[in-house]
Amino acid sequence: MENITIDKNQEQKTQPGKEFNMNPEPVTIRDSYKGSDKLKNKVVLLTGGDSGIGKSIAVHFAREGALVAIIYLNEEKDALQTKNEIENEGGQCLLLQGDVKNEQFCKEAIDKTISNFGSLNCVINNAAMQFPTEHIEDIKIENLHTTFETNIYPYFYIVKAAMKHLKAGDTIINTTSVTAYRGSEHLIDYASTKGAIVSFTRSLSKSLAEKGIRVNAVAPGPIWTPLIPATFDGEKLENFGKDVPLGRAGQPAEVAPAYVYLASEDSSYMTGQVLHVNGGEVIGG
């Protein structure tokens, strides 16, 4: 992928952000990516699947033959565009609009996926929010609650509801972050939730190993998604991603294949692990 020039005059006022307003728009999938039925007829439920990394995962999974159910908060235009792109891949897409902070909605999302597709083989927990602050004293308690209730609580809600449908050979994939490993002085609460996701992944993998259900995670670095213009100012947008060894922001299309790997038989001897797609930052774990 080539370096991108990010328009610094595109701050968005609400989270998790809208992809159709981004300049440049993220790259969802490379034309050179060839599907090979790695996930043929597998049913996947994906939170935060309307845009960014989630959208890219959904389109890659569709190209690999999966049937996709997408949970999104309120980004109707992005969600419909993602559904259209999945259908252009010859796939099927179920859109589920709602708030993952609500446990009852998460249960209903699982039920609707089963009702629509008849089974469930892969759960991907991906939805997130972040509220940058310069100092811990500046963190608003309301935002602290929203961050934890969006970024980690739904992982429990979704998995608990999915367990009666998952069986040996099925997979759970969680989206953590490079910030869980190196920390982030302006995203203390967000990084804390991402650290919790690492521990959740490791603990759940041990719990479900005897059932043959594998649990892994992906820790993206600076990836160009709607969450970025929705949370950072113009100066940070202009320099976003330039501090990693590869010297640029990553594209969702560079992250999503890691999820394909973790959902497919290619990773059959992997559980409790985290894949680091971060532009070259060497970190522990």
From TrEMBL:
<dbReference type="InterPro" id="IPR036291">
    <property type="entry name" value="NAD(P)-bd_dom_sf"/>
</dbReference>
<protein>
    <submittedName>
        <fullName>Uncharacterized oxidoreductase YhdF</fullName>
        <ecNumber>1.-.-.-</ecNumber>
    </submittedName>
</protein>
<dbReference type="InterPro" id="IPR020904">
    <property type="entry name" value="Sc_DH/Rdtase_CS"/>
</dbReference>
<comment type="similarity">
    <text>Belongs to the short-chain dehydrogenases/reductases (SDR) family.</text>
</comment>
<keyword id="KW-0560">Oxidoreductase</keyword>
<dbReference type="InterPro" id="IPR002347">
    <property type="entry name" value="SDR_fam"/>
</dbReference>
<dbReference type="GO" id="GO:0016614">
    <property type="term" value="F:oxidoreductase activity, acting on CH-OH group of donors"/>
</dbReference>
<dbReference type="Pfam" id="PF13561">
    <property type="entry name" value="adh_short_C2"/>
</dbReference>
<feature type="region of interest" description="Disordered">
    <location>
        <begin position="1"/>
        <end position="24"/>
    </location>
</feature>
